[in-house]
Amino acid sequence: MDRYRGSMGGLRMKVRSSKHAKLILPQQPSAPWTPRTFAIVGHRSSGKTSLAELLLQAARVTRAVGSVEDGSALLDWSEEARRHRQTLALSVAWLDHQGQPIQLIDTPGAAFLSHERDRALNASDAALVVIDAAEGVRVGTEEALRRARCPQTGQRLPLIAVVSKLERLTPGGEGRAMGLPSSGASIGVEGIEAIRAHLEAELREGPGPGPRVVPVQLPLYDEDGALQGLVDVLGGRVLRYATDGTGALSPEPIPGPLRAVVAVAAERVAEAVAMTDDALLEHYLEELELPEEVLQRGLVAAVASGAVVPLLLSSAEARIGAMPLLDALAQWLPGPRGVWIQDPDGARSLLQPGPRFVAQVVACQWDRSGQPFTLLRVWSGAPPRGPWHEGCSGRELRVHKLYRLRGPRRATAPRVGPGALVATWEPLGLRPGDTVTDGSRIWAVVPREEQTRMVWRLTLPDAAALESIEAVVAADGELSLRPEGRPDEWLLTGRSEAHLRLAVERIEALCGGRVDTGLPRVAYREIPTSWVSGIEGVHLLKGEHGLVSEYGRCEVSLGPTGPDEDALRFVDGFEDTEALPLRFRPAIAEGVAAALGRGPTAGYPVTGVEALLTGGDYDILQSTEEHLRIAGERAARAALESAGTDLLEPWSEVVVRVPQAALGELISDIASNRGRIVGMEVEGDEAQVVASCPHRELRTFAPRLEGITGGRGRFSLRELHYERVPPQLIDEITGARASSG
């Protein structure tokens, strides 16, 4: 068996004479201990963690390939990840291949945790996009590709695509889908071509050509359709893997019937690379080929610029593809990139790695013992021996030890420089996205995009649980917390129902108690139905001998203004200042306002009220402002009972962006939930709908939209006004109010 020496090096192509030496770029070896950092992204359950575990085993970081299903994965190390059998937070590891340090960030694929993916991309120099061979490009893949191209900063991460779970791909086609000549051999091409075409379409922006996705490997099957290995397009050889699951492989020459297929695939790679550089293109058009060294270096430059996306293959189950992928990562990925920073004056600039220390918080998590730690990406410089500073506020921080991580394992980080991912267990009081420096008042620009929101009402078991909630909110970075009104109730806002469910699970794990959840209460209001006049309010208290000890009386007329007017417009219409001196009248207004706190229909606050003071009197010896305040409150309560009140509910404007195919179902959902379509616009494959909807139904709009669009929908809200509640809902609302107290 021949020893495998790397599949990305030995191109079996004719190297031209020295007249083409001008095309060979000068060698630029990697600086020592300069890591290549990439994020592994893709749709949920596409095999991201399994691929990462395969790479770690091939690099001899682990003895065996960890499994998500049985809980043995090094990267899915938390109890919650093992319980759910799903990646629920980003996890990092480092390895060494061909003398090149490589750092990987494994990310969740679930849509409700896409902010974890985005932070990993923001902390990376490149992205490894994983596509399930059987499922193809799905919404999570599309979102990952979109987020790798940041519109706020203009930065585009280099991409490498990997088709995972290759054993699930059905062989067939032998090149017909790629326009290749039929060889009669068992090379699976059609499935790979479909994925390639979909990826290329997703990467295209505007009418012009976008990045070229080029397969540099093809799957090899035996006569029975069983996966045998890979065809190395660049190396011009077959990589046949052992069938015992050890991952051992032996390079073999390409059989004669397959050479035409591989040659055409290799030409596609050379053509894609040549199109990225004028000198390369000129040579390619003249000679119809590129020298080996020129092609390799041109490919590195094309990947770094984002013009070419290599497509590789793997199977964690069959232990196929790890070493060639490690070769590609070590040779093709760029070194540490720059980051956009902003100063207090709002000026932005691109900070390249240099002597000035700048790092950014990637994640805040808890280790297995429940101790919090902070993961940082170093953008520039080395950590100072003295104090650090929070870039935005200038607050001084103390950090004594830094560690490199491999899942839950940590080791002291002796040399930290640009590109390093390091963790500290020092209490810093930072959140994801925060910047630390050696004293400079700058901070890294954090890309953000509009997200859907979901709100839950939390009922806490005790006061100590609030600390756990605040800790989870700070660590997550996408959660927000505000009081609901009662001391034990808080409103927790997240990206989706699943996001909130996970947050509550984490809160309960920290506080050790149960946190009850529910939808937020609707801010109903009441408004007088009609005008009533001359309603009297009296406060009279007699002493033990029947003598008056407290007295105040007033008369008010009361009626509605409008649902969106001020809660109370108090008008003093009583001209007799001797019967009721002016000093008592503000107290009456205060009493009327107090009466509006609880309406007669359902106990909700009353709004849109005009109250007119029409009469009143006092006792010169026994009356005080407090007595007239009580009289005013009683008059207003009696007036509201007499006038009756209508129930009001808040309405909001919702702007929804969905794929055009989901437009009909979205409109139906809005209409069936009492919403009104205000405007609609279709542009390409995306549609935007503007609607006016009652807040009562919008509380569950986020999960409904996710179901309609498969996670592709986005919406934003803006409070509009109040409208009267339909009669058929009043009994339900008043009954719920009565039962809740």
Please give a quick description of this structure:
26% of the residues lie in helices and 29% in strands.
Characterise the protein shown here.
- With 741 residues, the chain is α+β, with helices and mostly antiparallel strands.
- It folds into five domains: 33-332, Rossmann fold (3-Layer(aba) Sandwich), CATH 3.40.50; 339-444, Elongation Factor Tu (Ef-tu), domain 3; 454-518, Elongation Factor G (Translational Gtpase), domain 3 (Alpha-Beta Plaits, 2-Layer Sandwich), CATH 3.30.70.870; 525-643, Ribosomal Protein S5, domain 2 (2-Layer Sandwich), CATH 3.30.230.10; 648-740, Alpha-Beta Plaits (2-Layer Sandwich).
- The protein has 17 helices and 35 strands.
- The strands form eight sheets. Strands 2-3-1-4-5-11-6 form a seven-stranded mixed beta sheet, sandwiched between helices.
- Strand 16 and strand 17 form a beta hairpin.
- Helix 12 (585-595) crosses helix 13 (625-643).
- The longest helix is centred in the C-terminal third of the chain and has 19 residues, at 625-643.
- It starts with 35 loop residues before the first strand and ends with a helix.
- Residues 9-32 and 173-185 have low confidence and may be disordered.
